[in-house]
Amino acid sequence: MKKLINDPANVIADALHGLAAAHPELRVDFENRVIVRGDAPVRGKVGLVSGGGSGHEPLHGGFVGPGMLDAACAGEVFTSPVPDQMVAATQAVDGGAGVLHIVKNYTGDIMNFELAAEMVAADSGTEVATVVIDDDVAVQDSLYTAGRRGVGATVLVEKIAGAAAEEGRPLAEVAEVAGKVNAYARSMGLALTSCTVPAAGRPTFDLPDDQMEVGIGIHGEPGRRRVPVAPANEIAEMLVSPILTDLDFTGGDGVICFVNGMGATPLIELYVMFHEVNQLLAKNGIPVARSLVGPYITSLDMAGCSVTLLKADDELLRLWDAPVNTPALRRGV
Amino acid sequence: MKKLINDPANVIADALHGLAAAHPELRVDFENRVIVRGDAPVRGKVGLVSGGGSGHEPLHGGFVGPGMLDAACAGEVFTSPVPDQMVAATQAVDGGAGVLHIVKNYTGDIMNFELAAEMVAADSGTEVATVVIDDDVAVQDSLYTAGRRGVGATVLVEKIAGAAAEEGRPLAEVAEVAGKVNAYARSMGLALTSCTVPAAGRPTFDLPDDQMEVGIGIHGEPGRRRVPVAPANEIAEMLVSPILTDLDFTGGDGVICFVNGMGATPLIELYVMFHEVNQLLAKNGIPVARSLVGPYITSLDMAGCSVTLLKADDELLRLWDAPVNTPALRRGV
Amino acid sequence: MEVSDLTAWVQEFARLVALERDELTALDSAIGDGDHGFNMDRGLSAAVAALEASPPESPSALFKTVGMTMISKVGGASGPLYGTAFLRMAASAGSPVDAAGFAQVLHAALEGVVARGKASVGDKTMVDALTPAVEAFDAALASGGDPFQAAADAAEKGREATIPLVARKGRASYLGERSAGHPDPGATSVTLLMRAAATTLGNAG
Amino acid sequence: MEVSDLTAWVQEFARLVALERDELTALDSAIGDGDHGFNMDRGLSAAVAALEASPPESPSALFKTVGMTMISKVGGASGPLYGTAFLRMAASAGSPVDAAGFAQVLHAALEGVVARGKASVGDKTMVDALTPAVEAFDAALASGGDPFQAAADAAEKGREATIPLVARKGRASYLGERSAGHPDPGATSVTLLMRAAATTLGNAG
Ligand SMILES: Nc1ncnc2c1ncn2[C@@H]1O[C@H](COP(=O)(O)OP(=O)(O)O)[C@@H](O)[C@H]1O
Ligand SMILES: Nc1ncnc2c1ncn2[C@@H]1O[C@H](COP(=O)(O)OP(=O)(O)O)[C@@H](O)[C@H]1O
Ligand SMILES: [Mg+2]
Ligand SMILES: [Mg+2]
Ligand SMILES: [Mg+2]
Ligand SMILES: [Mg+2]
């Protein structure tokens, strides 16, 4: 295992110290592993709390700041944080208007946030609403299963719900906007290589030099199928077509197109992918209204990418364009 | 070779199309492979032109925009662009106040920019000044050699000189600021893995699983020495101490500390590294005034990092903090 | 069973999990995200330490400490599931616990896991090992065998039965058909829980 | 030598470079950045195409087309160096070129490379192959041997002499002591240039 780390047991703690030093505008509660917006709680504003296993950086800690999250909880690598962290985060950002929990749809995340909400309710009475993100079309949705994973849409939800909260809208409305983004977003991912969890010290799965995994999540899980490596235009097809099959993206005000790197894929390749995705969308009569290209929700040192499309309307585009000032996403401020 | 690309021969062209689509605020001259600020030429402002081999993304194209570069020339992977490109870029951004060429100190880059300046002089008479970046302490400086490489300081020069140009300062002053940044900046890099040039299809060098290269540049060149892999704190020491030996960083207004990822190293590891570098600097009585952590000047899919320190004063800090609005660096706008 | 017997049970469970940590993680790598061994080991080490730091006075206090520790130290799916199980055990445990009382405690654990995770038998989760264990304990209690050994054997059988299943709950469900052919990691850790009970409580029971 | 002979020389140079492309790149990978073969091949293919598209009328026009094409298609260090060399050759070439004229052309090429790159013999660059080639050409011309073959042999010897050197110019200089033990890629491409001259002009000369 080749990584720029010390003891694998201390990766999260060390990285949090680095984040805190690089971003004095944020507050880091090292004991609870919670990253908080420097001026939290913001009076009268709905607080946005997210979190999940670490290893997806910049998600979620890199999205804390005005216009996006109020706090993020960092779990162990690929392991949901514990309720204590979520309770601390919720209390730290409660400005009197309630708190929205943005939860990716993983059994662990769901249950831990659920426990946290129960604890907050019993404790302080802060009003908590929850939105669950489940945008991954690689997973078949069904009432009888854990359902779809939450992946790329999380970034879009955090940005857009963050903007809605910044406008002073009430908890129910912010939750509704978040739910709308999730309802209109779909994602699909692909791995060229496995990632290596520091504590494990070896790749999670073995992938021969001529194979790739299609339909992966963000936790180094194997994908839905293994296929021979292919050029970018074929990969774009593999990612975009299940998305377009799942939801009709025509007829809106265009899409927000998000091409995400899994951690070890350089930007130049993501731009190549974005070009291919763009061409496919044009062919399908789907205009790209906005775009985001870069490693925003990663899987440690996995090489690969994911595509997320969000069917947008005027409201979502306006909120997408609103100012945001976080370590990983910044504009208009 | 596992890459998200089509034909290796078209990587640059494809990526430029992706960049253009993702950033409609920029203009891309596909024929000349020049990325230009959308509103160029800006009347009365010194134009900043840089460029170099591709494979270092977001450098340079990702730094085009208000407050930073006016244009960037994209060469073949790891190969200096040709003079025609630099001439086209220079003419596109000439707002009447002259143009600064920001050139990394590589024989090829130097000679091609030199030829371009000669061609511009013969042609349009645009006033051109040149600053050469040579901050890499891994290379011994000497009158009898090609001298040091230009690496991480390039990002800082582009930002700070860009801010000076935005203030409306004349060419000589902008060039002087750029030169000052270069004079007070030092860098050192390390590779955990080799990169793979698309056209070559295999790693540039073979690096066993338990070895790393210290003192690498940004072109997949082997480094100065090969050592066993080590924990982040020892790596920080290997990178920081030659920098501190080379220049006295105490006694200024602190340093701008830039921990850069080489392309395949995830952010979480860069934060771990930044924490270690920070602690070392504190131990040496060097306050960190500002910081930058992320993959900004990369080497394709190489895993590893570099550290750049810039000894800052009030002027440099003010220019560093000035608004900038580019794909890869944005603040205050 | 006194609190000391039950403490020994938890300690033995922790010991077995530490021993099998990499194996549990390997199982989770195949169909999940490769952390189940670390998760359980982290939680149980903390639980054992907490029990040492302030030894509980009653079985109920013991289970509560373990449950709270699992919830606040583990995260992931197994933290809330094992945590809820132990908290429910705390709520249902008398002092001391006799065999019939232990049956009740096991039922409470299973109900906690199901309430929290909403899985049914056949979903390829820890429920697939815990359910037959609880049933076998009841049956052996009624028929006069060693209920602890019966429960351990049944858990192991339940675990084996997860191998051919396509997962419907937890991360393994994302794999669809590819989840078949591997035992469930959580069902595997449950067999360690029941094996620990058989060796520490089976004779004392 | 007529323009057609010199065109054949450039074509043969391009053919040899295409043949040795991966070898040149491998040499550059060892002590540079692994693109010398691609760079030279890209430039020379373009030059050959340009010569075909509009066949030059004079040796001078021929060299100018090659020089301009190298400058505008290659980039890196070799683009301006070979480009400047050919442009200087254009400036010094009469029409037709006799052997003495060719000696002048070679001197001009060397001067161009040195003016542009400021390298001296022993810096481990293409100058280490070009300098002895020029000298050997002069000497053979004076003593009555085949100057083209002499130049090719001398270039090859010069190239071999770069192996033990520690580079002082170009990318290889960044490696310090580690640059020793490998031949210089640019010196290697110069040997192809001179070998092409020997086979295409040596008999015609
Ligand atoms: N809904 C559920 N009900 C019961 N058990 C579950 C459920 N979801 C997951 N599990 C169990 O949790 C185990 C995985 O635990 P662990 O790896 O620690 O957490 P995570 O899946 O969050 O990484 C699975 O093997 C399965 O036995
Ligand atoms: N200053 C110089 N003078 C003469 N030749 C040089 C000089 N610098 C580099 N070279 C030659 O250029 C060759 C490398 O060319 P190439 O790989 O195409 O360019 P780059 O080094 O920009 O990648 C070297 O092997 C060397 O022979
Ligand atoms: Mg997990
Ligand atoms: Mg090169
Ligand atoms: Mg797991
Ligand atoms: Mg080269």
TrEMBL record, chains A, B:
InterPro entries: DhaK_1, DhaK_dom, Dihydroxyacetone_Kinase. Residues 7-329 form the DhaK domain. PROSITE patterns: DHAK. Keywords: Kinase, Transferase. It comes from the Bacteria. GO terms for molecular function: phosphoenolpyruvate-glycerone phosphotransferase activity. It is an enzyme of class 2 (transferase). Its EC number is 2.7.1.121. NCBIfam families: dhaK1. PANTHER family: TRIOKINASE/FMN CYCLASE (PTHR28629), TRIOKINASE_FMN CYCLASE (PTHR28629:SF4). This is Dihydroxyacetone kinase subunit DhaK.
UniProtKB/TrEMBL annotation, chains C, D:
Residues 4-199 form the DhaL domain. It comes from the Bacteria. Keywords: Kinase, Transferase. It comes from Paractinoplanes bogorensis. This is Dihydroxyacetone kinase subunit L. Pfam families: Dak2 (PF02734). NCBIfam families: dha_L_ycgS (TIGR02365). GO terms for molecular function: kinase activity.
